Amino acid sequence: MPNMEFQLGLALPTPSIIKGFDLNNLGLDHPKDMGGLEARNKPARCFSDKSKRSFEQAFGNFEAECKTKTLLLLWSGQPNEEEDHNDQKKRTFSTIDDRNDAEEVDQVVGWPPIKTWRKKIFQQQQQQHRVGRIGNNRVADKENGSRSIYVKVKMEGVAITRKVDIRLYRSYQTLTNSLITLFAKYKKCADDDYTRYILTYQDKEGDWLIAGDIPWQSFIRSVQRLKIVRNWG
Amino acid sequence: MESSELKRSKDSVNSCESARRSSFPDEVLERVLSLLKSHRDRSSVSLVCKDWYNAERWSRTHVFIGNCYSVSPEIVARRFPRIRSVTLKGKPRFSDFNLVPENWGADIHAWLVVFAAKYPFLEELRLKRMAISDESLEFLAVSFPNFKALSLLSCDGFSTNGLAAIATHCKNLTELDIQENGIDDIGGSWLSCFPESFTTLEVLNFANLTSDINFDMLEKLVGRCKSMRVLKLNRSVSLEQLQRLLVNAPQLAELGTGLFSQELTIREYEELESALSNCKNMHTLSGLWDATGMYLPALYLACTHLTFLNLSYAALQSVELAKLLAHCPQLKRLWVLDSVEDKGLEAVGLNCPLLEELRVFPADPFDNEIVHGVTEAGFVAVSFGCPRLHYVLYFCRQMTNAAVATIVQNCPDFTHFRLCIMNPGQPDYLTNEPMDEAFGAVVKTCTKLQRLSVSGLLTDLTFEYIGRYAKNLETLSVAFAGRSDWGMQCVLGGCPKLRKLEIRDCPFGNAALLSGLEKYESMRSLWMSACNVTMNGCRLLAREMPRLNVEARGGMPHHLSLLSEMLGTRQTENY
């Protein structure tokens, strides 16, 4: 096993590279730049950590994925009268990857904090119940044999994204009516009744278009996401 | 006491010798102290003077070690010669969520070797988040002839072969409690290893296991263990089999059913209902895997005295839950899935006035966008109907500051408040503001608060509130929160009783870490991951506090390795 302690000792970043770390100003600094933490409304995958960057630079590896660095302090309570200063044990060990079991690649590791064994139960239950329970399944077989197509719907100014099953609707009108009902409670008091909204969608090419231009059947085959934006025009 | 005796004991406050000579023989002191059960009381007692220290250590039979790396087994054995029961906890709690690598440590074997030599009469071993191999289980089984109780919670590293060793060799076993473990389930023949003459089992919990077990052997085992009071089955046991077991074990106090879904004839249903209702002592019910509305009514008569109902493996709908709860007037603890929705929680508020604990788990945790589950409305409804509520774990997808304020107004006695808004960094969905005021309300109102988990969009203000008001807080969990070092500094500077602090994905760095030097003296553990702490900061900390065990991991792509330095000596645990 390589002596990683030695390697790390050589490659440690100098204090000047480490952001926000200044022992002389303990507790007095409110560092403004904390690496992109301002955008809180979107689900955060990881927070860019400028000080971890310096590790990557030192080792010549650049990766977009975030790494876990862990500090763990373990100790006990008050020192008791009997202390044994002779007992010391060095533990070194290595690990392959901090991200264990990240089956869902686009999810934050270990979040929401559900215990592993409980997650396994959910997965088993979902596998066994393809048909049936409302709300517990991503895809359900419908009576007419066609499968649901869930697309995400965001409304401008609303924190929560919803999902709708496009297959439930037959026309733009029914879709928009349903969306109005769905999002009605998120309408802020500041909006007056004359605020207009436009429904836009992202198609297979990734372009954002105004919904309504193409025939409904083409639309449902092409739509990837929906977004409701304010119409300032 | 006469005034002359009073004067004498005051004079000899620093010397127990005279007090000893005057009245208290060692044996009496030991006898008195042996009645003390709380390990914190025992710690206090041991600090009075040397004689009390000795009397305490000779009279102690149970030792609790909250962090297995805080002390070595040799030290424990040297100090406490008469231990019969050990509780050990190992890995940090975040290992439950895959944030700790697999071979981190917390292996029990070294402890077992010492115990085999020093405590040959060991009777009980309770482990939480430890690594235990089959070899260790076998070693345990053969090394302690009086061994009675084994409880493994959230442990890993073993398989059903290890259980077979326990069943084979532990002739006096009363308790085998296997919960939530990362167990390698390779088959059910372990049950058959209990000898035919074996009758002492009182607690059997194998709900954790996924594979089929030998039902005939189980039926015979349950039939001959007349003192059995806790039986928790796994999913492989059917309703019909459950009925057969219950007929022979009406004395059960805690029951975990197997699969609660099967095609039953009317007669089979009635037999099941009858067997369940004959369990007059039943106060805890769990399992109920895949329970549907069809067979839940079989439980109604059995629920009259129920105090703990765990429905977290059954995705019930609101109506089904409401009907069931109408028969559970004595309920104190309830665990459900959020499939019951707000309507289901309204039923909780209406039917369970004695409720003290509520846990709502997400049925579909990894889909952020399908909005089902529970909202703030359900929680508020429960708080109106259940004023005694003091423990809550609540997973939801939306919350408001106003709702939380109402909740704690209704239920000011919270000791454990664990709120998980599942989308990281999500604000109050009505006002779009941070959730600071929600947790401010919690810590200001709930003066008995011991444990707090925060979530949602939070600025440093939340932590100012926590530091200032949470006088009894012992455990704090933080994720995706805070704005700067100041947040963590507030917590470390306040919260006089803080023992465990776990933080992930927050912008707290070295300055925050190093501001807690005084605080760490009185804490059990600190976890920080994906924060702004650097290796330099850790080294500085370790240098400033040589008695602290500091572990720091740096992750690197492709050849991740772990640096672990024990820069300090071990401290003896404050038992």
From TrEMBL, chain A:
Key words of the record: Auxin signaling pathway, Nucleus, Repressor, Transcription, Transcription regulation
InterPro entries: AUX/IAA_dom (IPR033389), AUX_IAA (IPR003311), PB1-like (IPR053793)
Keyword Protein transport attached: no
PB1 domain mapped to chain residues: 148-233
UniProt main location, coarse: nucleus
PROSITE patterns according to UniProt: PB1 (PS51745)
Domain of life: Eukaryota
Places the protein is found: Nucleus
Function noted in UniProt: Aux/IAA proteins are short-lived transcriptional factors that function as repressors of early auxin response genes at low auxin concentrations.
Subunit structure, as described in the record: Homodimers and heterodimers.
Annotated family: Belongs to the Aux/IAA family.
Protein name stated in the entry: Auxin-responsive protein
Organism classification: Eukaryota, Viridiplantae, Streptophyta, Embryophyta, Tracheophyta
Automatic annotation (TrEMBL), chain B:
Domain F-box: 24-65
Pfam families referenced in this protein's UniProt entry, alphabetically: F-box_5, LRR_6, Transp_inhibit
Alphabetical list of SUPFAM superfamilies matching this protein: RNI-like
Transmembrane region(s): none
Keyword Ligase listed: no
InterPro entries: COI1_F-box, F-box_dom, Leu-rich_rpt, Leu-rich_rpt_Cys-con_subtyp, LRR_dom_sf, Transp_inhibit
Keywords of this entry: Auxin signaling pathway
Gene3D superfamilies per record: 1.20.1280.50, Ribonuclease Inhibitor (3.80.10.10)
Protein name per UniProt: F-box domain-containing protein
Species of the source: Hibiscus sabdariffa (roselle)
